[in-house]
Amino acid sequence: MQRSLNVITGHMPCPNTIGDAQQTFWCLEALFAAGIQVHLFTFSEQGSTIDPTTNKATHPQLVNLCSSVQYYPINKGHRNFSFSAPYATAKYQNDQLENDLASNNYPILIEGMGPSGLALSSALEHRKIWVRILTYAPNYFRYLQERSIAPLKKLFYQREAVLSKRILKKINQRVSWMVTSSADKHTLDDLFLGGNIHILAPFTTSSNSITSKTGLGNYCLFQGNLSDAATHKTASWLLTHVFHNLKVPFVITGNSPAPSLVELAHMQPHTCIVANPSSSERQDMIEKAQIIIQPSFIKSGADEALLEGIKKGRHCLTNTKMESGVMGGSYHQGTSANAFQEIIIQLYHHPFSEEEIETRKKLIGAEKTNEVLAKECSTIIWG
């Protein structure tokens, strides 16, 4: 029997992205491989509908993985202001999307908290809806509040954190949840005091092989979605608190960096930024790096960029994690900027060995494959 699923995501899922959008792309790959027919509803700066039969689309990879792909515009400006919903959720409200979902009765999987406000629509009141929490929004906005200097921005992020909690409680009455770790499940349990919450480990790249190079690399590397506010602030923290007086070559790469970050990265001769690399350029930078540095102060475990670094790069460094997971033995953890500096000094001239590659291969052998995760996802949704 053919199983069909509606998938809604607020970010264009394609392979050359980092973060939640990349996690969604890996999910789509796994569902396609499992024979599940996916109808994708996603948001972009310009709304358009893609006809998969013509194979003409901005992102042909999505056309190959999905039975249909429909794009919707992201709402911007004061029209999204609400006293009851965060701006981050209101910008995805779309009447046309609600109408399009009514054209079938397939289960709905919402990727991330952004579009999850759609679950409150009266048009979807009797639908089976799952929300997969990829980044816990209240923590995300608290992090931005702590790292912001401008009073108005701090107030905005504080408001977003509070409203994110409120809307999660409202949505809990209408949906079931998927989370990527036991720590996230505990967080939601505490917030909801009940709810239908299942743990589904993060999907990963379809290639599970370790391609790391031995020997010495040429620089330290941080990569990410630089248009994301939290990633921007993490990159700034590395520049101003770790590499400001550590004379080791440091490269930042990612999409759409703000001019202020570009200026900051070029203030010192040993730091630089490479904007909007192609997929092959990004892979080349990972392979040539000596240390992959991927702190993530929001997620409790290893994020997508760190996992990619483990599989394709040499030494990896992140902040202290609540959950190290299967791959915890593959990376170093620092508790502070000073600790980061000390670890970097130790690793920068330390050749990456064949023994370390073998350790990673053993660890990845214990990690759940995308095939297994797709089956678990299917069981959660259809029972």
Topology:
Layout: E1 4-9, H1 20-33, E2 37-44, E3 49-50, H2 60-65, E4 68-73, H3 87-90, H4 95-101, E5 108-111, E6 129-133, H5 137-147, H6 151-171, E7 176-179, H7 182-192, E8 197-199, E9 220-224, H8 229-242, E10 250-254, H9 259-265, E11 271-275, H10 279-288, E12 291-293, H11 304-312, E13 315-319, E14 332-334, H12 337-348, H13 354-365, H14 370-382
Parallel strand pairs: 1-2, 1-5, 2-4, 5-6, 6-7, 7-8, 9-10, 9-12, 10-11, 12-13, 13-14
Antiparallel strand pairs: 3-4
Structural write-up:
39% of the residues lie in helices and 17% in strands. It is of the alpha/beta class and 383 residues long. It has 2 domains: 4-205 and 368-382, Glycogen Phosphorylase B (Rossmann fold, 3-Layer(aba) Sandwich), CATH 3.40.50; 220-365, Glycogen Phosphorylase B (Rossmann fold, 3-Layer(aba) Sandwich). The strands form 2 sheets. It has an 8-stranded mixed sheet with strand order 3-4-2-1-5-6-7-8, with helices on both faces. The longest helix has 21 residues, at 151-171. It is globular, with a radius of gyration of 21 Å. The model is unreliable at 47-56 (pLDDT under 50).
